Structure formats: C-alpha cells, structure tokens
Amino acid sequence: MAEKKLTKSDLVAIFIRSNFLLGSFNFERMQAIGFCVSMIPALKKLYKGEELKSALKRHLEFFNTQPFLATPIMGIIAAMEEQKANGADISEGAISGVKIGLIGPLAGVGDPIFWGTLRPVLAALGAGIALTGSLLGPLVFFIAFNVIRLATNWYGVMYGYSKGTQLVTDMGGNKLRYLTEGSSVLGLLVMGALVAKWTTVNMPFVLSTYVASDGKQVVTTIQTVLDSLMPSIVPLLMTFICMYLLKKGLNPLVIILGLFVIGIAGYAVGLFA
Amino acid sequence: MTTGTLILLIIVAAISGMGSVLDEAQTHRPLISCTLVGLVLGDITTGIILGGTLEMLALGWMNVGAAMAPDAALASVISAILVIVGHQSIGAGIAVAIPLAAAGQVLTIFVRTITVFFQHLADKYAAEGSTRGIEMCHFMGLLLQGIRVAVPAALVGMVAGTDTVNALLASIPEVITRGLQVSGGFIVVVGYAMVINMMNAKSLMPFFFLGFLLAVFTNINLIGFGAVGLICAYFHVKSLARELNSGTGGDNTIDDSDLM
Fold first, then answer.
1. Which chain regions cross the lipid bilayer (chain B) (predicted)?
2. Is A190 on the interface with B (CB under 8 A)?
C-alpha cells in the first residue's frame, strides 16, 4: 500500500477554509462544523468509506478557541491524521485529547493578544484618523489587522503540521506564559495611554469668577481645577467604575445607556459641553 | 434610492453580517462597515467619520469564549444608512446605534440557536460520509448571519430619507443629540474597562498607570507607546523567566531565544 501523504496544496486548502472557521457558530458545539469543514481537504485525501465517516464524526465534536490560533491545532491534527491513515497507532481518543487539551491554552494566549491588544490598538489608531474624515483611518486598521491575521493563520497551519505533536510538548513549557504576560504588559500600557488620550470630558461649569489684582478676569471652572490636579482624572475614574460594574455582571449595554443618560443630563444642566 | 444602490447596500450589509460571526476580516467593525455603506451611498466621508465615532463606542465589544458582545454589524449598517440618506447628524447616528446593537445581539443569538439544527444535520451527513453535506450546513449558518443584517438594511434602505423617517429623526430634541455627542467623548471607557477586565492581570496594573501618566504629561504618539510597551514587556518577561527558573532550582541562565 502506497504511503498516504498530504501535499502543500492540501495544507493551503486548510488555510483557506480556516478563514471561515466561525461561519456556523452555534450554542451547542460552537465551532465544530467549521473545524470539520477546515479539515475536510485532508480527511478526503487520507480516508475512504467507513474510515472517512468516522473521521468526519470525530471532528464534529465540540470545538471553541480563539479563531486565529485554531490554525496550529488544524496543522497538528492534519499531521496526526496522516500518521493514523498510514497505520500508526493513534486512537480517536488521542486525537480528541490533543484538540480539547489545546483549545483552552490557545484561547488564553489569543484573547489578550488579538482581542485585548492588537484590535483595540489598531482600531483606536484608525478611528482617531477617521474622525478627520480621512480614508486612511479605515484602511490602516483593515490592512494592518488582516496582514497580521492572515500571516498567523498561514504559519499556524504550516508550523502546526511540520511540528506535529512535538508542538504540544513545546507548548507545555513556559513560552506560552511569556507570550501571554508580555502581550498583557503591552496591552495594558497602551490602554492606559488611550484612557488619557482618546477620551474627551469637558466640564466648563463655572465655580467662581473674580477680577485678579492685575485687572484680568479669572474664571475657575470644574475643568480648570481638575486639570491643575490631574488631567484626564475623570475618564480614569469612569474606567474603574465601569470595570467594577462589569465585574458585578452588569450588561455593557446597560452601562453605555447609563453613561448616555449622564451625558444628556450633564449637557442639559451645563455640567458637560 | 435606485434599485442598483439598494442591491449594493444589501451586499455590503450581508458582508458585514457574515463578518460579525466570522470575526476574521473585521468587516463588521463600524470603521469598515460604515465606510462601505458610505461608499455605496455616495458619501464616503460621512461614512468614515460615523465609523470612527462608533468604533470608539465599540472598542471593547468582543466575543470571548461563549460570551456575546453587542452587535456592531447591525448598529453600523443601519445608522450609517439613516445618517447618510436622511442627512442626519452624527449625534442622531449614535442615538440609533445603541438600541440597534442590542437588537442585533438578540438577532445573532437567535441565528446561533437555529444553527444548532444544522449541527445535527451535519452529524447525519457525516454518518453518510457526505463532505458536501457538511460544507452546505456550514455555509447555511454563515448565510443566515448575512441575511439577519441584509434584510433589516433593505427595509431601512427603502424608507430612509422619506419625510416620515426624517421627521421622526428630527423630532429627537437637540439636548439629546448634543448630549449623546458629549457622551460619545467618554463612552469608550466601557470598552477600555472590558479589555482590562479580560486581561485579568492585577499584578500588571502598574503598566496601565505608567501608560496613563506618560499620556497625560508627554506628547508621545501611539507608535511611541507601542515601543515603550514592547520594552516594558521585554523586561517583565525577563524577570518572570528569572523567577520561574530560580524556582525550579536548576541552572539560572536565561536563554534569550525563549523570550521571543
């Protein structure tokens, strides 16, 4: 029997399909169909008949992780299925075990990197430019994010396949922890900067007006007092209040509505402008 | 609105809806979605500005695990149509975007529940060895997500700009639209708070304060913050590595290749 081998084009097909992983997300098994559909090019190449049926079935099991970091799992599984198809002693349980074992740690790394740092930073940068009406804003965000994303998906599949189960042992070390902590440091530092830079709170509510000894009129507003203490202190406090409310389990939309009410009421009485 | 424009609008809305579930190319983000609607409707500048404004609101809206974020796709598409076709203010756009984000969230939860049916259908096709069948189930789920934004967009596209709708939007008092714009300046803190909570790293909060103080007292731009952040991350990981390695007792040398 000739050895069954996955070719580069099979891996490219997996990469293309990985971009649609979440298409059929559902509340029962989440990304299960998407994972199975991504693996189909490899499975069709490796198995026929009853073997194909059971391969399809085992990849329709529950699956849910950060979508870009699902790709190394696809690569590893492709390598494992290839070995299995060539008669290696790999049980269905071992394949499921690798999948289930990796989705947690990879989501733990991917969520802070991509959703916590990369997207908010690029989106804030793009939105800042977009407010001037420049097309550069959406373009910067779209191109930068997608170049990084596509590169992650591509190398994820290729690296996962070439390393195979070796990668599972590698990930057991401290590298994942370094990556997670490092990106959290970067993300939090930029978040702190955004709280100060990309918020606008203006409180022109006049506290006192007097004529100074040199004859100039001095107007003290809430804003001038706050600015002399610590500029941007109001958005900082608002951020902490929101963090507290979110931890209490309040729906973010309720908090947003609450802030709108504060904004409208504040504008109506002249506190904000 | 001409039939051609309406068809293009439906396509853009469907792309945005599909993007909201895929979360890959980010076509559901206000910055992209509103720009595309603006392009189709012939006023890209308004689309970009509205997109930038709504993006700030939606900065922290993300799907992590099984948690569902408010829906940026429906909010961006519909409010962009209303603002551009009806020549409304950005403030009016914000005013309609928030209830739409909640409505969109309900719609996508509905679709993700219906898709459970396709999950079971896929099981049946797997038992028959039909890869085409499974692919079809996957595509149907995606299509439903496109439809859930495209249909409301088509309906609004047909009535937007009519006197009734404009009168309705104009009846929003100025104190509300101006107040919403004022809140637009700081509503983004909800997003920041969501991101910080998600990172869930109390011991790293000094880095947050460092970023805040640098931003308040210097003129460093965002690229500069990225660079400072990378340097901080390097030193933090280095000290973490020292801590972990000394904990195991073994040799204390740090392999720098481990850090990258």
1. 39-60, 72-90, 96-118, 180-200, 207-237
2. yes
The neighbour count for residue B226, using CB atoms within 10 Å, is: 17
Closest CA relative to residue B236, chosen from B213, B214, B207, B212: B207
Nearest to A146 among B25, B198, B208 (CB): B25
Residue of B nearest to A266 (CA): B179
Structure tokens at B30: 């206000």
A128 Cα distance to chain centroid: 20
- Please state, in angstroms and rounded to a whole number, the distance separating the CA atoms of residues A72 and A61: 18
* For A130, nearest residue in chain B (alpha carbons): B52
At residue B249, φ and ψ (nearest 5 deg) are: 85, -30
How many angstroms separate the CA atoms of B237 and B13, rounded?
A: 43
What interface predicted TM-score (ipTM) does this complex get? 0.85
8 Å CB contact of A24 and B44: no
Domain segments of chain B as ranges:
3-200, 201-247
Q: Decide if A18 contacts B17 (C-beta within 8 A).
A: no
Q: How many angstroms separate the CA atoms of A228 and B17, rounded?
A: 46
Chain B environment of A183 (Cβ under 8 Å)? 233
pLDDT digits (tens, 9 = 90+) for B42-92: 999 999 999 999 998 888 788 776 667 789 999 999 999 999 998 888 888
Q: Residue A12 and residue A1: Cα distance in Å, rounded?
A: 26
Token reading at A146: 């997608």
CA distance A28 to B120: 10
Cα–Cα distance between B192 and B56 in angstroms, integer?
Answer: 10
Identify the residue whose tokens are 């709708």: B165
With CA atoms as reference, report the closest residue to A200 among A120, A133, A267.
A267
Mean pLDDT of B224-241: 91
Task: Give the β-pairing of A206-211 and A217-221.
Answer: antiparallel
Q: Which residues fall within 8 angstroms of residue A7, CB to CB, at 6 or more apart?
A: none
The letter for the amino acid at A63 is F
CB of A175 less than 8 A from some CB of B: yes
pLDDT the model gives residue B160: 85
C-alpha count within 13 angstroms, C-beta hemisphere, residue B169: 25
CA distance A176 to A106: 8
Beta carbons of A196 and B138 less than 8 Å apart = no
Interhelix angle B189-199/B44-58, rounded to 10 degrees, is 50
Q: Which 3 state secondary structure label does DSSP give A218?
A: strand
Q: For chain B, say whether A228 makes contact (Cβ under 8 Å).
A: no
